[in-house]
């Protein structure tokens, strides 16, 4: 999904902040919210703008009618409830949405840098520890596979 500047300034070169926007939409998709759910306008992809956050132009255009909190509740929490895969608790939700708001800032210069993305509470308390656990599990599985192959 394109960042706003790609839509509103199609001739301007994209900066690293466009990658931050793209990362935010990737995180949304991993959480269960498909970026395509937030498209408006034509189907050619040029009118993509994420309506999950109240952007600067919202008041004038009326294009967005859900806050990021509402989108998260409807698109993630209710999905997780329905499929019984565990919901985000209130503290994690607040931390996650705080980061998403920053990453999806309408103005590119207001988005965090890659280094800044690793510092927020959501990354430090939830993402990085889960990532480290995943690496440990992967390593343990790899060792198990190697042991099995040695026995043959």
Automatic annotation (TrEMBL):
What residue stretch is flagged as signal peptide?
Answer: none
TM stretches of this protein: none
Every copy of the Protein kinase domain together lies at 1-123
Q: What is this protein called?
A: Protein kinase domain-containing protein
User: GO MF terms on file?
Assistant: ATP binding; protein kinase activity
Q: Which InterPro entries match?
A: Kinase-like_dom_sf, Prot_kinase_dom
Q: Which source organism does the UniProt entry give? A: Emergomyces africanus
């Amino acid at each position: 999904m394109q960042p706003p500047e790609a839509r509103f300034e199609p001739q301007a070169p994209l900066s690293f902040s466009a990658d931050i926007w793209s990362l935010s939409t990737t995180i949304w998709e991993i959480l269960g919210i498909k970026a395509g759910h937030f498209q408006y306008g034509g189907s050619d992809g040029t009118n993509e703008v994420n309506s999950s956050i109240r952007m600067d132009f919202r008041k004038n255009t009326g294009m967005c009618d859900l806050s990021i909190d509402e989108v998260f509740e409807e698109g993630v929490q209710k999905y997780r409830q329905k499929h019984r895969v565990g919901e985000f608790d209130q503290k994690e939700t607040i931390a996650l949405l705080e980061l998403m708001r920053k990453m999806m800032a309408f103005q590119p210069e207001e988005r965090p840098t890659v280094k800044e993305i690793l510092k927020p509470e959501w990354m430090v308390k939830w993402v990085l520890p889960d990532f480290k656990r995943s690496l440990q599990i992967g390593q343990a599985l790899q060792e198990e596979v190697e042991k099995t192959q040695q026995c043959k």
